[in-house]
Amino acid sequence: METFLQQVINGISQGSAYALLALGYTMVYGVLRLINFAHGDVYMVGAFAGYYIANNDAVQANLGASWMTAVVVMAGSMAVCAFLGILIERFAYRPGRGNSPYTLAFWLAIVGSSVGRMVGGSTPALLAGAAAGAVLGVGLDRLGIRPARQSSHLTLLIIAIGVSLFLENGGQLAFGADPKFFPEIIPTRRIQLGGLTVDSQRLTVLGVSVVLMVLLTLIINYTKTGKAMRAVSFNLDAAKLMGINTDRIIAFTFALGSALAGAGGILVSLLYPRIDPLMGIMPGLKAFVAAVLGGIGSVPGAMVGGLIIGLAEVMAVGYGQSTYRDATAFVILVLILLLRPSGIMGKRTSEKV
Amino acid sequence: MLELRNVSSGYGAIEALKDVTLRIGRGEIVTLIGANGAGKSTTLRNITGLVPLTAGEILFDGKSLKGMPTHRITAAGISLVPEGRAIFANLTVLENLEMGAYLQRDRARNAREMDRIYTLFPRLRERRKQAAGTLSGGEQQMLAIGRALMTGPRLLLLDEPSLGLAPLLVHTIFQAIDAINREGTTILLVEQNANAALKHSHRAYVLETGSIVMEGPSQQVAGDPRVKEAYLGEA
Ligand SMILES: Nc1ncnc2c1ncn2[C@@H]1O[C@H](COP(=O)(O)OP(=O)(O)OP(=O)(O)O)[C@@H](O)[C@H]1O
Ligand SMILES: [Mg+2]
C-alpha cells in the first residue's frame, strides 16, 4: 500500500509536468485548430535556456546556490520560451494563414535541408535538400496546386514540421549534439510525509505546476484577454467582429503556452538532468497524447490528461517493466482513438465551431 | 454614411456579387432582400472585411475601408450581427456582452449600455450568469444583437435576425430594431422575411444572383408586382 501511494505521488508529479506541456497543445489548437508540433522543441529550448542561465557567471557570482537562482532560472526560461512562441507564431504560422506561396516554399526548404542533413550528412546535401524543398513549394503554387493559400490545414502542418526540425537542428548546431547536465538548482532533500518519502525535486515539480495551472485558469476565466482567448477559440470571425485583434490574441496564446512549456522543461530537468536538443520529442508526443486524452481544445482536459499519462507511466514501470515507460502513452492513444476520439472533456461532435 | 461602389466579390472561382452599388444615409433603416444564395450575407461580409472585394470600393463616412482588418472596421463604428447568431456558446451571457465592449474602456459607458440592452431584452438580464449555449434561439438572437450594440456601432448590420424564430419573437426582434434605430443607430437589415423587412424599413434594395435589380422606398418596392410575386408570396 505504501509503495502504491509512493507511486501515486511520483505519478502525479510526473503527470503535472506533462500537463503543463499538454496545455500548450490544447490552447493553440483551440485558437488555430492546429497541432503545434514544434511545442516539444520549445520545451527543449526552455531546458537549455535554464541551463545557460544557471551556469551564467553573473548569476553564479551573485546568487550562487540560493533559492533565488531557481526563481531566476524559471522566470528566465519562461520568458525566453514566451518570446520564442511569439516568434514562431509571427514568422511561421501567421504568414502560413495568409496567402503568399513563399511561406510554404520557405518551410518546405527547411524540411528539405533537414532531410538532406540527415541523409547526406554534408553541407552540399543540406543545400540540395533546401533547394528541392523551395522548388517544390514554388512549383506547387505555379501548377495551381495551392495548399499555401487560404490557411489550409496541410500547409500549417508542413510549417509545423518545418519549425520543429528547424529547432531540433538549430539546437544541435547551437548547443551541440552531446547531452549536457542540468545543474542542481534545488538542493536534494528527502521529506517525510506520513510514512512516505518525497524528494524536494518532485515536490517542487508538483508545487510549481499546480501554481502555474491555477494562474492559467485565473487568466483564462477572469481576465479580459483570457475571455477573448475563449471567444477566439469558439468563433474566430465573431471575435473579430467584437473588435478583437485576433492575431494578437493568437500570439498571446502562443506566448502563454510556450512559457508553460519552458517551465515544464526546467521542472523535468530537475528530475532528469540529462538534456539534449532532441529531448523534446518524446515528452512532446506524450503531452500531445495527454491533450487528446483530455479532449483537444479543453484546458481542464489537458490537465487531467497529463495527470493520467503520468500516473499510467509510473504504474506501468512500477508494476511492469521499465521498458513499458514510453509505450504507455501510445497504448493510451490507441485506446482513446478507438473508444472515445473526442477525449474525456472534448465535445462529442466533430463539428467545427 | 455607407456607400458601396461597383462592388464585386466571390469565393475562389465562385462569383457571389457583381457590380453592386448601394448607399445608406444616416438614421435610415435600409433593407436588402433576396432569395437564398443571392449574395446578401456576402455583402455584409464585404462591408465588415471578413471577405475581400474583387472590385469596387466601400466608403464609410467618405473614407475607404479598403484593406482594413475586421477589428478596425468594428472600432470605426460598424457592427455585424452575423447569420446564425454566432454567439460565444462557451461564455456566459454577461461575458458575451463584455466581449462586445472589448474596445470600450469607459466603465460608466459600458454599464449604461448594458442597462439599455437589458431594458431592450429583459430576458437577457435574467440569464446573465448562464452559459450562452443554453439559451433558446430567440434569446440567442437577442444576445447577438445586444453584443453588437455593446461595440457602440453607428451602423448596425443585421443578417436575417428573424430566421427560425416563432412569430411572436419575430415581432419582438423587429420592435427592438425599430427602437434601436429611433435611438440613433443607422441600420442595414438583410432579410428573407421580405414582408416584415419592408414594413420596418425606409428604403429597400432587391438582390438577385449577385446584382441589385431594384431599389426604392420600401413602400414602393412592396407595391411592385414582381416583388409581390417573388418575395411576398402574392399573385
Ligand atoms: N464560404 C463560401 N464558399 C464558397 N461559396 C460561398 C461561400 N459562402 C457563400 N457562397 C456562395 O456565394 C453565393 C452567395 O452566398 P450568400 O451567403 O452571400 O447568399 P445569401 O443571400 O446570404 O443566402 P441565404 O439567404 O441562404 O443566407 C452563393 O452562391 C453561395 O453558394
Ligand atoms: Mg445569408
Produce a short descriptive summary:
The complex is a heterodimer of chains A (353) and B (235). Chain A has 353 residues and is mainly α. Helix content of chain A is 75%, strand content 3%.
Give the helices and strands, then pairings:
The complex is a heterodimer of chains A (353) and B (235).
Chain A: H1 2-32, H2 39-55, H3 57-63, H4 67-97, H5 101-119, H6 123-142, H7 153-175, E1 180-181, E2 190-193, E3 196-199, H8 200-222, H9 224-234, H10 236-241, H11 246-271, E4 274-275, H12 281-294, H13 299-319, H14 325-339
Helix pairs in contact in A: 1-8, 1-9, 1-11, 1-12, 1-13, 2-4, 2-7, 2-11, 2-12, 4-7, 4-11, 5-6, 5-7, 8-9, 8-11, 9-11, 12-13, 12-14, 13-14
Chain B: E1 2-11, E2 14-24, E3 29-34, H1 40-47, E4 53-60, E5 63-64, H2 70-76, E6 78-81, H3 93-100, H4 107-120, H5 122-126, H6 137-150, E7 155-159, H7 167-182, E8 186-191, H8 194-199, E9 203-208, E10 211-217, H9 218-223, H10 225-231
Parallel strand pairs in B: 3-8, 3-9, 6-7, 7-8
Antiparallel strand pairs in B: 1-2, 1-4, 4-5, 9-10
Helix pairs in contact in B: 3-6
Bound molecules: adenosine-5'-triphosphate (ATP) and magnesium ion.
Residues 11, 14, 16, 34, 36-42, 83, 192 of chain B line the site of adenosine-5'-triphosphate.
Q: Can you describe this structure?
A:
The complex is a heterodimer of chains A (353) and B (235). Chain A is mainly α. Chain A has helices at 2-32, 39-55, 57-63, 67-97, 101-119, 123-142, 153-175, 200-222, 224-234, 236-241, 246-271, 281-294, 299-319, 325-339, and strands at residues 180-181, 190-193, 196-199, 274-275. The radius of gyration of chain A is 21 Å and the shape is globular. Chain A is built from 14 helices and four strands. Chain A has two domains: 2-97 and 153-339, ABC transporter involved in vitamin B12 uptake, BtuC; 101-146, no CATH class. The model of chain A is unreliable at 348-353 (pLDDT under 50). Chain B is an alpha/beta fold. Chain B has one domain (2-88, 154-231): Rossmann fold (3-Layer(aba) Sandwich), CATH 3.40.50. Chain B has ten helices and ten strands. Chain B has helices at residues 40-47, 70-76, 93-100, 107-120, 122-126, 137-150, 167-182, 194-199, 218-223, 225-231, and strands at residues 2-11, 14-24, 29-34, 53-60, 63-64, 78-81, 155-159, 186-191, 203-208, 211-217. In chain B, a hairpin with a 2-residue loop joins strand 1 (2-11) and strand 2. Chain B is globular, with a radius of gyration of 17 Å. Chain B starts with a strand and ends with a helix. The model of chain B has no long low-confidence stretch (mean pLDDT 93). The complex binds adenosine-5'-triphosphate (ATP) and magnesium ion (MG). Residues 40-41, 83, 159 of chain B line the site of magnesium ion (MG).
